[in-house]
Predict the structure.
Amino acid sequence: MLLLTAKPVAEKIRVEVKRRVHLFSQQFGRRPKLSVILVGDDNASQIYTQRKGELALQLGMDHETITFPKSVTPAEVRNRVQKLNQDPGVDGILIQRPLPKKFLEGDVLFWISPEKDVDAFHPQHAGELHLGLPTFEPCTPAGIMELLSHYQISIQGKVACVIGRSPIVGQPMAALLLKADATVIQCHSKTQDLKALARQADILIVAAGKAGLVDATYIKPGATVIDVGIHRTSDGKLTGDVLFEEVAQVASAISPVPGGVGPMTLSILMRNTIHAAEIRERARQHLA
Ligand code: GUN
């Protein structure tokens, strides 16, 4: 059984991003900058945004987290995002999810200008992705593709099953696998006989957000299993959507939680940020 740990892949990407950040700073006389918006006091979101900030600084970028209380109105946050859109010193903008209910996702998706949308959630990016066009790719699915590629898991012609259809993970994951010539089965909470469909998969991506949903009976022997879930157990440990110990007996490759998908998401976010910075500065030079 092959353990698909992020460490070597995430590290390789971080080294490359650091080199590009250094070159960018020399060439343009400023550091690339990531601005993160955090609304409310959700503990997990605070930890995630803190990690994003620390990594950006480690790689030589500038970073700011702009925090708002839960009571903030969507209009106030939108105004702040518009200022960041117009700020020439800001290269990447990210609005941490989840947001309070009064924020309508269908509105928020349009706030960040596509050229600074390093999460790649803007409908323009989603549309390009679903048409198989070059675009910014959402960090978690793009990180999973890097993980599969690093461990030489072949995708072309294989059956890939994605459990989950969120706009952040499930949908873009299915689009990327399809673009890589997999035959994709997309499952969700209304799917009938999830187990029978999952058992057809050579590659099973589990992004259901339900701790321990997938046990060994969901796995085709020899399959590759990617666990996107992250949950804290009552004794304080982190676990995923997959029952690791028993699934590892049947699968040929499996990603651990923690140490699998999570670090990949962060690395791709940094790569998207330097990429956004390079594109914008090059376009500006071209126009000057
Ligand atoms: N919340 C959970 N995952 C993500 C992510 O990739 N980006 C943002 N902005 N929020 C998240």
Remarks:
- The first helix runs from residue 7 to 28.
- The domain at 28-113 is CATH 3.40.50.10860 (Rossmann fold).
